[in-house]
Design a protein that fits this description.
By secondary structure, the protein is α/β, with parallel strands linked by helices. Helices cover 28% and strands 21% of the residues. Strand 3, helix 1 and strand 4 form a beta-alpha-beta unit.
């Protein structure tokens, strides 16, 4: 189980447009927002990622980089980036489902074509949103079992502003007896 203030799993994946993303060498001043999405087949993901694309410059002003990740292959990931007209948001692809599990993501099986007529992969991960500190420790996470009811990026920005202003630590770190 991932714990706040503890190291996150490694994350090194190919990126749409070339190159390799490596969380360990991302070089952000205050951290990286890692948004795991279900894949091209998910219309809710496209809407959600459009919002992250729009707010990526605001995260950058705070020293935070952003990344969208799925287990889709290169073509489907590139299609999603094109679909949301990504200019700022980076996309990584080919997330192994074993690594998705390491991040605490839930795995679903295909139900065929979605409402937008795109076939779901046989297996894929459900959404998760993480803010990882530059030292690779977990600051914030939210994981869903369904595509619905995700955290709002504008609220995450507000939380980041509060955390910066108040030097607010990651919470939920206690692992002792209760």
């Amino acid at each position: 189980m991932l714990m706040p203030r503890q190291k996150t799993p490694n994350l090194s994946l190919p990126m749409v447009g070339g190159g390799q993303f490596d969380l360990a060498t991302d070089g952000s001043e205050r951290g990286t927002v890692v948004c795991f999405y279900r894949g091209l087949h998910c219309p809710i993901c496209a809407t959600y990622l459009k919002e992250l694309e729009r707010l990526t410059p605001e995260f950058a002003k705070r020293g935070i980089k952003t990344l969208a990740v799925s287990s889709d292959g290169e073509e489907r990931a590139a299609d999603m980036a094109k679909k949301i007209e990504a200019e700022n948001l980076r996309f990584a692809y080919d997330l192994p489902l074993s690594e998705a599990r390491d991040w605490g993501l839930y795995i679903s099986t295909s139900r065929g074509k979605t409402s937008i007529g795109i076939e779901e992969p046989a297996l894929f991960s459900e959404p998760g949103l993480f803010l990882v500190n530059p030292d690779l420790t977990l600051y914030y996470m939210s994981v869903q079992t369904m595509p619905f009811v995700r955290p709002h990026f504008s609220e995450l920005l507000g939380a980041v502003d509060f955390a910066i202003d108040k030097s607010y630590p990651a919470r939920g770190e206690y692992t002792g007896e209760v």
